[in-house]
Amino acid sequence: MALWGLFGKKENKGSEENKEIKEHLDKGLKKTKESVFKKLTRIVAGKSKVDEDVLDDLEEVLISSDVGVDTTIRIIKRIEDRVQKDKYLGTSELNAVLKQEIVALLEENDANSLEETQNIEKHDPYVIMVVGVNGVGKTTTIGKLAHKFKKAGKSVILGAADTFRAAAVEQLVIWSERVGVPIVKQGMGSDPASVAFDTLSKAKAMNADVVLIDTAGRLHNKINLMNELTKIKNVMKKVLPNAPDEVLLVLDGSTGQNAYEQAKQFTLATEVTSLAITKLDGTAKGGVVIGISDQFKIPVKYIGIGEQMDDLQIFDREDFVNSLFE
User: Average pLDDT in the 60-87 region?
Assistant: First the structure.
């Protein structure tokens, strides 16, 4: 089942609810936006056209905003091509052009984005296996996702397969109670694959719509991590052959370049199909969303922009880029 099918029909951009979502986004990205805007204002001061010096300075602005070197080079090349094509590009147009080129870049790298995902008939519970290192907001993201799905009228069940940390299970239990959804758990040190098996068995019996499986957030031994995640996947397939439908990697946006390294390690350890980037409200490093989406060719589906239950938003690349550069 496609995610828009799970959340229901997407409302038009002019609706009151979407205006409120955009306001929350602007507020959540305030630190990054202020940082970027100040830097952009400085580089165009006293200049009328986008020339080589402005582009050099723009490159520095994007890199310092954690967009990443490779992605920054691609953006600059796009703007250079635009300047050459149009023959003249005024500095007053820079923001608009920057937004257009970044959105276009993200569209190219995000063929499976939410807007382009087609609804398909429900086959089984939609299973999302959630991965990510400890401390990135993984369990909180699962709780907020459960709330989002339930709010959309879907039945949800959680699986506490991070059995290596008692705190992880306890935290997920708190979220299950807070959201009002069932949870499957076992004792600390239990086999994570066994928890996943039990969770999917219960979800199938309940005819649940969505299953969210938490996993251990360890990276110190990539081979063990790979084996563990592979085992969980294989065991889930014994209950539901298509499971998992999605492997969601949660990254902490406030860590900037470290988030790139985590994405690299996890994409080597398992097949990641979607990303959630959290804690963007407390950092000026929001550009990391653009760089990670571009570099790993994996769709960013969710962004975390605050502590409240509804502060996990479905990622809209156009709204995101507009919030940063308007």
Answer: 91
Domain locations in the chain as residue ranges: 113-272
Strand pairing class (156-160; 210-214): parallel
51: DSSP letter: -
Strand order in the sheet with 246-252: 183-184, 156-160, 210-214, 126-131, 246-252, 274-278, 300-304, 312-314
Q: What would the pLDDT profile of 136-148 be if each residue is shown by its tens digit? A: 999 999 999 999 9
In terms of DSSP H, where are the helices of the chain? 3-7, 16-28, 30-44, 52-64, 69-86, 94-108, 138-151, 166-179, 192-206, 222-239, 257-269, 288-296, 317-325
**C-alpha–C-alpha distance, residues 183 and 27, integer Å:** 33
By the 8 A CB rule, do 289 and 278 touch?
no
pTM: 0.90
Tokens encoding 311: 């502060």
CATH fold for the domain made of 113-272: Rossmann fold (3.40.50)
Q: How far apart are CA 214 and CA 192, in angstroms?
A: 9
Residue 59 corresponds to which tokens in the numbers above?
A: 């490159």
